[in-house]
From TrEMBL:
Gene transcribed to yield this protein: secY
Lineage, uppermost ranks: Bacteria, Candidatus Magasanikiibacteriota
HAMAP family, alphabetized: SecY (MF_01465)
Signal peptide (residue range): none
Cell location: Cell membrane; Membrane
Protein's UniProt name: Protein translocase subunit SecY
Length: 423
């Protein structure tokens, strides 16, 4: 079955070109990830990342670009941070909220502001990262002049904007979300190295841990597929149209997905959870109250229990939040009324809007809870086995499976549209 789909993709010129273009962009991303900024001690940097859980996780989601101190070392993190800021502003700033409700035109304006905000955020994050590395006990950066510092920051910022541009080009090809695909490619690129380490360091005494990891991986994959594919079908009837002496109204359904937000809540949650310790690392070397608060913040986030609780709450909360942003019950109710359609037992208009909103909240409650539990399940196993790879593996699987499902759906949708066009 899957082989037949690959053949169909290859036979359709437009889809084949889109897939090849996306693969080409991902190759360019991986090549850029191996172009280091000159003058950095990458060996000492790798040692620093291995001993620091927070930056080790950041390195994973940047696709290993940090350990190479590459020109794209920040990945798409500044762009994601900028996106989160504008999503939150939509809840408290009326003008941004109006833009979000304007449809495609409003989204284009928000996208433009998000891109502009990414530049200063990337500049600040690159400066913070360099200073954190300079303050570490490892000789990573060394003594650099103001001109060298400025050059490195500009290079890293340009690298982030380059990845953002690539991500948007990929999104336009309708073969998946570009930003998610870049993160996906970064995680996949680390898999061979992880497998190699597991094989080299294999010990028969660790067989239980390996089996446990495999069980967690299977549970995570199955759970993400179930949640991603799950939906509730709301029955919808269209007004009866009389044709001659008799006629029947059409009946269909309105699908409401359990996880409408996809992989975005996970990416948002990771970005937010990593932000406080990242900033705190910058002030760890200071003397006085600021240094004390910074060191306390780092210690708190290094605590697996606190980290797990925050991660759970963030995934849960962002699933609700992002669904609220992309799901418009008022517009759905209005479109149904215009088409002469209605939900049996529910009055058109405001009652339909309230019904859709209430139903979606119940569905998302289950989806968000289930997704959050799956997200922290590897952390629970990590606490039992005392190995770091399980926590990273679980979060990675969430993103890999979700993005893979999204890619499959978008490609399948293009194939279906092409077949309709031929008819």
């Amino acid at each position: 079955m899957w082989w037949e789909k690959i053949q169909r993709i290859w036979k359709i010129k437009d889809i084949r070109n889109n897939v090849l273009f996306v693969l080409g962009m991902l190759v360019i991303f991986r090549l850029a990830a191996h172009i280091p900024v000159p003058g950095m001690n990458t060996e000492n940097l790798k040692s620093f990342l291995q001993g620091n859980q927070i930056f080790g996780l950041m390195n994973l989601f940047s696709g290993g670009t940090m350990e190479n101190f590459s020109i794209v070392m920040l990945g798409v993190a500044p762009y994601i941070t900028s996106s989160i800021i504008f999503q939150l502003l939509g809840m408290i700033y009326p003008k941004i909220e109006e833009m979000q409700k304007e449809g495609e035109a409003g989204q284009q304006k928000i996208s433009m502001y998000t891109r502009l905000a990414t530049v200063p955020l990337a500049f600040l994050q690159s400066y913070a990262m360099i200073n954190i590395l300079r303050q570490s006990q490892f000789d990573i950066v060394g003594d650099i002049t103001f001109f060298q510092l400025s050059s490195i920051m500009i290079t890293i910022t340009a690298g982030t904007m380059f990845l953002m541009w690539i991500g948007e080009l990929i999104t336009d090809r309708k073969v998946g979300n570009g930003i998610s695909l870049l993160i996906f490619a970064g995680i996949i690129s680390a898999v061979p190295g992880v497998l190699q380490n597991l094989i080299i360091n294999y010990n028969s005494a660790d067989l239980f841990i390996y089996v446990l990891f495999l069980i967690v991986a299977v549970i995570t994959i199955v759970a993400v597929v179930v949640i991603s594919e799950g939906q509730r079908n709301i029955p919808v009837k269209y007004a009866r149209q009389i044709r001659g002496r008799s006629g029947q109204g059409q009946q269909t359904h309105l699908p409401l997905r359990v996880n409408m937000a996809g992989v975005i809540p996970i990416i948002f949650a990771i970005s937010v959870v990593l932000f406080p310790p990242l900033i705190a690392q910058f002030f760890v070397g200071h003397i006085g109250i600021i240094g004390t608060i910074a060191r306390g913040t780092v210690e708190v986030f290094n605590n697996q229990t606190i980290y797990g609780i925050l991660y759970f709450l963030m995934v849960f909360g962002f699933t609700f939040f992002y669904t609220e942003v992309i799901f418009n019950p008022d517009k759905m109710a209005e479109n149904l009324q215009r088409q002469g359609a209605f939900i049996p037992g529910i009055r058109p208009g405001k009652e339909t809007e309230n019904y859709l909103k209430s139903t979606m909240n119940k569905i998302v409650l289950f989806g968000a809870l289930f997704l959050a539990v799956i997200a922290v399940l590897p952390l629970i196993v990590q606490g039992l086995t005392h190995t770091q790879s399980l926590a990273i593996g679980g979060t990675s699987l969430l993103i890999i499976v979700s993005v893979a499902i999204d890619i499959a759906k978008q490609v399948e949708s293009q194939i279906t549209m092409h077949e309709y066009d031929r008819v």
